[in-house]
Amino acid sequence: MDELDAYGRDYVPQAAASVADHAIRSGDRYVGQRDLLRAIAVADSGAEADVQLGVDPGTFYCADQLANLIALSGEPAFAGVLTGFIHVPPDRSTGAAAAAATHLLPRGDNLQQCARVVAAAARELSEETSYSTIVLTAFGPFAGVVDNPTAAFVADPANLDRAVRLAAPGLAPVGRDPFAAGALHRYAGDGRELVLATAVLPLAADPVDALAGRYFDPDTTADNFRRALAEIAAVRPPRAIVSLGVDSGQVLRPARPAFRVETQTRGFHGATRGRTASDGFQRHLELARLFLRARARGDGPLRFRPGRGSDPEHGRSDML
Q: Dihedrals φ, ψ of 20, to 5°?
């Protein structure tokens, strides 16, 4: 068993009734002490965010989506397609509570950092092939999150262009094709072609319902994801499917922002058990291995710390 295979196996979720320190979840402590990636995404302003390997995406749609991605990767039609989930930190544009959280960053910094995280994955996925399609999904608003940064990221072609420039400087935009659930963003150059297929998954019938917490059940959201994916696959079969979701809990935790490449989930959505939920953690390490491969190269869109360990109270590394 290698180090990544062992990572997270001994993680024990913190029971809500026994949480003494609401500012730090048990998953934050685990990652802070044992994270294998030890990466940093830096915005143009110099603002930094950690990039880590998560062990628990919680019990909201993000957790359920990772379980959906795990189930998808086991289907014959998607054999060989890499799937994974990345948690994005909130920023000061996310909602009213986030606007007052001084440890969070402005939206522009967050989107620039997100471009670097996406670019790290895209670089590894596209470098060994002349023709690649990467699907990026995001979520819309929900209670407390008026403006979801993941939707903002995929909705603006400038963010995608930035990610592609960082991943493959020889590629340039050559066209954008809308479809019902999103768009195909095409890039070409140096004898290569890359497509980023984007879609925003709504969590309710409309934004008013979403902000009021009147959500779809998890199976409906999973079906919406499948429909969007079917539209994309009919035009460009994907090499990878990476879903983005905001970790809104970081609003309440006074640590510096952190992106989390999630490695395992139980797939629960609150008290509602979706089709892909499991009593035990379902482990999924494909995307984590991709980021560790980027770390082994030691260059690219992210900066890597030489040592392990951080202070989960303050979100600072002991090796900065």
A: -90, -35
CA–CA separation, 38 and 14 (whole Å) = 23
Quick one: tokens of 215? 């959500």
For the chain, the 3-state helix, strand and coil shares in percent, each to the nearest 5, are 35, 25, 40
Q: Whose structure tokens read 């957790």?
A: 63
- For residue 117, being part of any structural domain is answered with yes
25 in a structural domain: yes
| Residue with the two structure tokens 């670097």 | 116
Please state the domain count of the chain: 1
Q: Nearest CA to 195 among 137, 133, 125?
A: 133
Kindly write down the DSSP assignment for every residue of 267-294, as one continuous string. -EETTEE-TT--SSPEE--HHHHHHHHH
Question: For residue 318, is it within any domain?
Answer: no
The answer to whether the CB of 179 falls within 8 A of the CB of 172 is no
Q: Is the pLDDT of residue 299 over 60?
A: yes
Q: Is residue 16 part of a domain?
A: no
Contact 272, 57 (CB under 8 A): no
pTM tops 0.85: yes
Question: Considering the chain, what is the average pLDDT of its residues?
Answer: 90
The neighbour count for residue 97, using CB atoms within 10 Å, is 14
Asked if 117 and 42 touch (Cβ cutoff 8 Å), the reply is: no
What HEC string does 212-267 produce? CCCCCCHHHHHHHHHHHHHHHHHHCCCCEEEEEEECHHHHCCCCCCEEEEECEECC
Q: Nearest to residue 229, comparing CAs of 241, 247, 217, 246?
A: 241
Q: Are 85 and 245 in contact (CB under 8 A)?
A: yes
How far is residue 21 from each of residues 202, 218, 256, measured CA to CA in Å?
32, 29, 17
- Please compute the mean of the pLDDT values over residues 189-218 and round it to a whole number: 95
What percentage of the chain exceeds 70 in pLDDT? 92
> Which range of residues forms the domain containing residue 140?
3-9+21-305
